[in-house]
Inverse folding.
């Protein structure tokens, strides 16, 4: 659509700007403020410049957390994106089954994060959980997410897949629905194989929604807090402690405001950078 | 009927497996919510041997429990109303006009959706305490606006761009003032978009725990925070915990039912 | 393949059709002969796209048979029938170059790459796509994309027929005639059966050797453009073909012929007999504006009509006449004198058509021409 140049449009945008600025800029200023000060209590603060940043960027605890986080987000994307696409390809497009399918798939997305954690906490326990019982007693595989680090990792990943794959699938589904029938008809006439149809028709047309999916899943998995916390509390040891938890512990638990603030800024910057890359890619593909 | 149009049954099996995968843990939770704690800890049963509604009774009769739900519903609805009211004019501006800094503003809005809540915990805590809004519903509603408003603007803009500008121009020629045009003509046209946006605002606000817990203590305590109460000296009250969990899923299911026809388009942020 | 035969074909989109209204295609038996250039002409919603999809195999008919020579192909897919179809909206594979687009059907067949190259260049030559071969299909204009779509249909050796579903709809008018000429060229060069669906009579007449006019799910006439013009079998054909369309007047039978509003129109004996032997509920006569004879002055047997309007269109004129309350259009050459006020006209018997229940009544009992639907 051709837009009209008119700076008075700012009046329409003002409420949003003020509201979000209130929620974003003021707290951000506080964070920046803390990140350059050493705070003992309300009355004694000392300006320390970039000290906290230096400390934070060299803190091995944070490096570990960061590494863990990247691996986690990487796994999440590697599993959920192809799985979501595959499911979207098999979803029925009309009739009662279609509505039912959509509803069932949307349910996990609407469960409060702590309840998600609770569901799997119960489900996975050896004593009261169906999964725990099946794995331990029926199949003989020893499984304990509370004591075993790799069990914990796998469980946390499975929770995320359970929780969020539907989002990817629904996004891809909406992309697929937008493809006009003639493309499929032409492909049949051209004797294209199913794989060729996927590669040359479906995948290209899903590009824009896939970018949204990848961006959202990366962002949200990078910020994950509640689900792993409820399940394992970050353990055993540190094995499932991701960035948000480390930060929260530092800020609210230990009240290390200075380092926490510096870390927050670094955290935020990483996400900003990645999201800028994705956003640019998205708007480029939209323009085409 | 064209026999080639029937979907092959084999193709649907993976889908069924996936749907089952989604439903089984929830079934287990529901199952547990109808059992007594003794039965839960006694052994594994696929259906409650002693079916009981006692767990639900606890939640419906104990004020500290059901107030959690009421609080959560209250701030979520508040958030929906606020987010929609400010997002609608803004989305219209982004859809119809170019103005100074518009692209940068849009991107900045999106970055807030990507802000880690953990980063804002402490600042929010101090901010809302200092203005005396700590432990109020409005505080949580406003805090959630941080990520819901950008999303609302994004989705609504997508839907609005699907309405041709000619409709606006025709309305002005017909003598409509801007508010009248917006209310009587434009909003009905994007009805499904508004529904979808409301759905997403509900969804992200309802499920968010971190900020909601940080900004509240007693009066506006959300259900998520209440649920941690089940841990006591005598062990975890699994039955009540399960029942509480089931009750948090229900509002979500209700909302999905209402927007089921449009939810697909909304997920693509209106851009499909 | 010698012919495509539609045997007692009918199609309804509902599972249990209760009456004729439920049918998109009413029962028809029709033959398309090999190598012909045919047009399927009709207004929107008459069933032409449905019929095309049934021929190509994208749709399976609910009743009747589709036969290629002696083989029933109802359940065969388009690829099995070796049919190529070009759609209304250009379908190109965006991610591939024009070359790869054209090569796509051949590569799917497993053709060796050397042969693919030859064929692609051959078709690119015919369609003037040579300069675009290396370009990505995404950036092409609408008519270039449509040419690529056509190219994909032509590039296959074994294609038995090419079906076009209003392919020039999205093309700019000044490019349409170019593409039409191209299509005719291709037909002459390759001698493949081509069926071209359109709602534009001009397109149909320039492209096709024979036109099948569709109306209400039936093929109401199948003939050369000239046959359609001179002897419309159905009032719709009379109305749809020609500019302006045929004049149609409701009449009642009288002694010696038919009449309306005090005007008597004589009919031949044979035709009168035919009329008497036929059951009908509506009776009309039709005569094309081109065939109404205008006398220079009053003549004994001529009918007198009032000239109400004259349109001068350069090489010809259109007169609107009022004949006993009925409005008629007459088309006159530019050099003929235009009557003022009153005109004396007659309807030459060979051009005056009689329609009972919209279908043409003819005097001689001739065998029904091949491909025509039997009168109900």
């Amino acid at each position: 659509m051709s837009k009209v140049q008119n700076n008075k449009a700012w009046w329409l945008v003002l409420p949003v700007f003020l509201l979000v600025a209130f929620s974003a800029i003021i707290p951000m200023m506080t964070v920046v403020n803390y990140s350059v000060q050493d705070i003992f209590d309300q009355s004694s603060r000392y300006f320390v410049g970039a000290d906290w940043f230096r400390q934070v960027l060299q803190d091995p605890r944070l490096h570990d957390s960061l590494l863990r986080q990247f691996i986690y987000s990487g796994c999440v994307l590697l599993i959920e994106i192809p799985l979501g696409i595959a499911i979207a390809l098999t979803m029925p497009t009309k009739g009662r089954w279609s509505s039912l399918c959509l509803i069932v798939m949307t349910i996990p997305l609407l469960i409060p994060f702590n309840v998600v954690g609770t569901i799997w906490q119960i489900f996975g326990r050896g004593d009261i959980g169906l999964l725990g019982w099946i794995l331990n007693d029926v199949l003989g595989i020893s499984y304990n997410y509370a004591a075993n680090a790799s069990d914990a990792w796998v469980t946390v990943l499975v929770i995320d897949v359970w929780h969020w794959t539907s989002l990817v699938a629904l996004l891809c589904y909406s992309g697929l629905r937008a493809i006009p029938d003639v493309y499929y008809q032409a492909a049949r006439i051209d004797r294209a194989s199913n794989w060729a149809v996927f590669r040359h028709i479906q995948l290209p047309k899903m590009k824009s929604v896939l970018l949204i999916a990848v961006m959202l899943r990366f962002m949200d998995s990078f910020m994950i807090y509640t689900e792993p916390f409820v399940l394992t509390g970050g353990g055993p040891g540190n094995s499932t402690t991701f960035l948000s938890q480390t930060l929260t512990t530092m800020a609210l638990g230990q009240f290390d405001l200075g380092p926490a603030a510096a870390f927050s800024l670094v955290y935020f910057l990483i996400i900003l950078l990645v999201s800028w890359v994705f956003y640019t890619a998205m708007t480029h593909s939209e323009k085409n | 009927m064209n026999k080639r149009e029937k979907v092959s049954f084999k193709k649907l099996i993976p889908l069924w497996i996936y749907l089952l995968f989604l439903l089984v843990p929830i079934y287990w939770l529901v199952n547990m919510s109808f059992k007594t704690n003794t039965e839960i800890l006694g052994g594994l049963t696929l259906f409650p041997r002693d079916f009981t509604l006692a767990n639900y009774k606890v939640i419906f009769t104990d004020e500290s429990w059901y107030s959690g739900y009421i609080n959560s519903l209250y701030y979520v609805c508040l958030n929906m109303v606020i987010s929609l009211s400010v997002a609608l004019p803004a989305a219209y501006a982004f859809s119809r006009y170019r103005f100074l800094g518009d692209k940068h503003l849009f991107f900045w809005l999106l970055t807030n959706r990507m802000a880690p809540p953990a980063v804002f915990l402490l600042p929010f805590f101090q901010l809302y305490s200092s203005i005396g809004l700590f432990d109020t519903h409005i505080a949580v509603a406003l805090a959630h606006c941080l990520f819901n408003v950008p999303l609302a603007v994004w989705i609504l803009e997508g839907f609005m761009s699907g309405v041709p500008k000619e409709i606006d121009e025709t309305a002005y020629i017909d003598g409509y003032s801007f508010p009248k045009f917006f209310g009587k003509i434009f909003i009905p046209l994007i009805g499904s978009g508004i529904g979808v946006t409301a759905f997403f605002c509900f969804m992200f606000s309802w499920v968010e725990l971190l900020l909601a817990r940080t900004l509240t203590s007693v009066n506006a305590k959300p259900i998520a925070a209440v649920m941690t109460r089940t841990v006591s000296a005598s062990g975890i009250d699994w039955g009540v915990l399960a029942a509480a969990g089931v009750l948090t899923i229900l509002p979500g299911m209700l909302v999905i039912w209402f927007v089921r026809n449009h939810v697909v388009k909304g997920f693509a942020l209106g851009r499909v | 393949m010698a012919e495509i035969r539609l045997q007692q074909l009918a199609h309804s989109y509902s599972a249990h059709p209760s009456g004729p209204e439920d049918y998109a295609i009413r029962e028809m038996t029709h033959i398309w002969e090999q190598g012909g250039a045919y047009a399927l002409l009709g207004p929107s919603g008459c069933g032409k796209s449905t019929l095309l999809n049934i021929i190509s195999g994208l749709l399976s008919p609910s009743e009747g048979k589709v036969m290629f020579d002696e083989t029933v192909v109802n359940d065969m897919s388009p690829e099995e029938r070796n049919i190529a179809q070009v759609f209304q909206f250009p379908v190109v594979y965006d991610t591939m170059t024009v070359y790869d687009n054209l090569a796509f059907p051949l590569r799917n067949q497993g053709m060796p790459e050397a042969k693919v190259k030859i064929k692609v260049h051959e078709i690119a030559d015919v369609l003037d796509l040579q300069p675009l071969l290396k370009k990505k299909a995404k950036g092409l204009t609408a008519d270039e994309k449509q040419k690529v779509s056509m190219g994909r249909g032509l590039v296959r050796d074994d294609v038995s027929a090419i079906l076009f579903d209003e392919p020039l709809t999205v093309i700019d008018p000044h490019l349409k005639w170019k593409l039409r000429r191209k299509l005719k060229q291709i037909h002459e060069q390759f001698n493949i059966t081509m069926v071209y669906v359109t709602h534009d009579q001009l397109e149909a007449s320039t492209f096709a050797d024979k036109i099948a006019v569709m109306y209400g799910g039936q093929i109401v006439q199948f003939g050369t453009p000239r046959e359609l013009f001179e002897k419309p079998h159905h009032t719709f054909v009379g109305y749809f073909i020609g500019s302006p369309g045929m004049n149609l007047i409701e009449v009642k039978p009288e002694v010696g012929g038919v009449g309306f509003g005090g005007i008597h129109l004589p009919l031949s004996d044979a035709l009168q007999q035919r009329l008497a032997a036929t059951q009908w509920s509506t009776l009309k006569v039709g005569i094309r504006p081109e065939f109404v004879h205008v006398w220079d002055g009053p003549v004994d047997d001529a009918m007198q009509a009032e000239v109400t309007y004259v349109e001068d269109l350069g090489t010809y004129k259109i007169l609107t006449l009022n004949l006993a309350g009925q409005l008629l259009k007459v088309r006159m050459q530019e050099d003929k004198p235009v009557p003022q006020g009153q005109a004396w006209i007659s309807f030459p018997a060979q051009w005056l058509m009689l329609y009972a229940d919209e279908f043409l009544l003819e005097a001689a009992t001739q065998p029904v021409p091949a491909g025509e639907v039997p009168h109900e």
Q: What stands out?
A: The mean pLDDT of chain B is 82.
